[in-house]
């Protein structure tokens, strides 16, 4: 991306560009999405859009980086300060779900379109995705070490949780009856009631598994 003076309004506009482009790519696919499609959706000219991007492939990489930065700053880093692994898992699920519903597919697009990146870009994104996956799996492993986990493989559990969250952008509608917070709590209830042993559900005090 071209170097730009960092301002609050510019950052907000960049976020709008990323989220709008992500939504279009999610709906049409990367190959079928043109720069003109994105510019038109933003109410900009193609030349105006190139003030914010340096190319379609670079835009895709920037979208993925933006989504992973949000995930790091709002989910992974705060979760690291939560000592109880069950409470940490609850936080990760609800916050990640909130980001997906708020971000209009910015994070989910990582799953579907990573093959469109250059090899160097793909390696960077894959490494960051793997790091997040390992943090999630390690949290589930800690729940298991405390004797709270049902007889479930932790890797299968981690992939299943990510699959549920990533699929949100395929069906969630902001105008629907459930808010992002409610969606996150519903997913947490499903996941934790499925993972946590019944006799352990009252120990950590999470209302979603009462």
Please explain how this structure is put together:
It is a single chain. This protein is an all-alpha fold. It has a single domain, classed as Tetracycline Repressor, domain 2 (Orthogonal Bundle). It is 67% helix and 0% strand. The protein has helices spanning 8-28, 35-42, 46-49, 56-79, 85-103, 109-113, 119-145, 154-166, 168-171, 180-195. It is elongated and about 60 Å long. The termini are far apart.
What key attributes describe this structure?
210 residues; mainly alpha; Tetracycline Repressor, domain 2; 67% helix; elongated; disordered N terminus
Low-confidence stretches: 1-6
At the first level of CATH, what is the class? Mainly Alpha
CATH superfamily: Tetracycline Repressor, domain 2
Distance linking N and C termini: 48 Å
| Level-2 CATH architecture | Orthogonal Bundle
Number of strands: 0
The secondary structure category is: mainly alpha
Let me know the largest β-sheet: none
Order of helices and strands: HHHHHHHHHH
The mean pLDDT is: 87
Q: Tell me the Rg in angstroms.
A: 19 Å
Query: How helix-rich are the residues, as a percent range?
Result: 55-70%
CATH fold call: Tetracycline Repressor, domain 2
Strand content: under 5%
Number of domains: 1
Cα shape? elongated
Write the layout of secondary structure elements.
Elements lengths: L7 H21 L6 H8 L3 H4 L6 H24 L5 H19 L5 H5 L5 H27 L8 H13 L1 H4 L8 H16 L15
